[in-house]
Amino acid sequence: MITTNKSWLGVTLAPQIARRHFATYLFAVFISSGYAGALAVLQPGLLHVMGIAQDTQALLTGYLSALQELVFILLLGTAGALSDRIGRRPVYVFGLALTGAAFALYPHAQSITQLVLFRLLVAVGSAAMIGMMVTVVADYAEESSRGRANGMQAMAATLGAFIPPLLATLPRVFTANGYDELAAQQWTFAIGGALGLGAAVVALYGLAPGAMRKARETRESIRQILTEGLRTARDPQTALSYGAAFISRGDLAVTGAFISLWLVQYGTRELGMTASEAMFQLAVPRTLAVVGGALIGALLMGQIADRVSRVTAVAIASGLAAVVYGAVFAISDPTAGWVIGLLFVMGIAEISAFVSSQALVGQQAPEQCRGATIGLFGVAGAFGILVGTSGGGILFAKIAPSAPFVLFGILNLAVFLWSLWLRKRLGEGRDSVGVPA
């Protein structure tokens, strides 16, 4: 029998959750997060190899990402409600397996139409996978250490963000060993796809089955669960968490989609590099700078979110992000040395917004419709990614590469002001559960 209220890595676990369940979850997060950023890093090289003109690559990048987010908007709430009914584990396993399989198919597209089809498969799997990545942490941790649990989750997610730049080094390795550029891309994506299939097996045997048993007892329909989830948005702190989800996921999307694209285009156009060389020499080290900052930010915000009110934590994160994303306006040469420092701080800012928003929604989500509430939180995040990628692609192509970042600097400022207003409304720096600000 599993004893209750164990602690692991500073996180107090919920009853019936063992350390191995939480460890399995963190591994699943590690792989899930790798997929969240992999296409953003690898796709520029693939588009180049497919012979797509540079002046359409930014628009296509934005449109493909927008398509994925439309699927997220349609499916995240449903995936959350389904997990409230049948359990988190089967939904998470399905998401990992489908994402891995579709990822392996992606570079075999013979046309833009096939590329869109494979991206749709990735999107359906990712909706289930990312939805559960956010939901399960709220199940596994007690409220008193939810900030630290989200910090641990964000740290695992940040470590997972090392996967895309590591995968991005593989095309150069394969071409150096005699493979042509397309075959190098196909083998790289195949290795990436195998990670998801392997993680699905680990999740099948390692995640807690208790949620499934509990879910079978409910007689509510998925529609009823979704309706209850929608009602939670009337709570002002839940509403703020949705706004924070919008900007935090948009921050991550803009950084992931356009930093690598900016650098690959700059390297091939201004420095005469091949796509593989630009990815390896320019994009990889600067992506690693963002990831390094995110590792620091995950630890810091995980601690901060348990020591101040969750509304205050959102204010801190969005305020920092407003400054950092606005500062990208000053970049004219993305290879300049000082840009690496800015990207490091950007990593701190974006993961802080991610952790603080999740801690807030986890605090506010009712247990009986937690999956649906956090699924709708994911929908808000999907809208943020949609704005960041589709709108950002247009801004990148038509105005300047820095324009998508400046847009999210302004949006972060809006959420910062919203959080300050709500903090004042809740009274003397205290939120509704009485945590000091």
TrEMBL record:
It is found in: Membrane. Pfam families: MFS_1. The chain crosses the membrane at residues 22-42, 62-82, 91-109, 115-137, 187-208, 239-263, 283-301, 313-332, 338-361, 373-397, 403-422. It comes from the Bacteria. It comes from Biformimicrobium ophioploci. Keywords: Membrane, Transmembrane, Transmembrane helix. This is MFS transporter. The keyword Membrane applies. Residues 21-427 form the Major facilitator superfamily (MFS) profile domain. InterPro entries: MFS, MFS_dom, MFS_trans_sf, Sugar_transporter_CS. The keyword Cytoplasm does not apply. It is a multi-pass membrane protein.
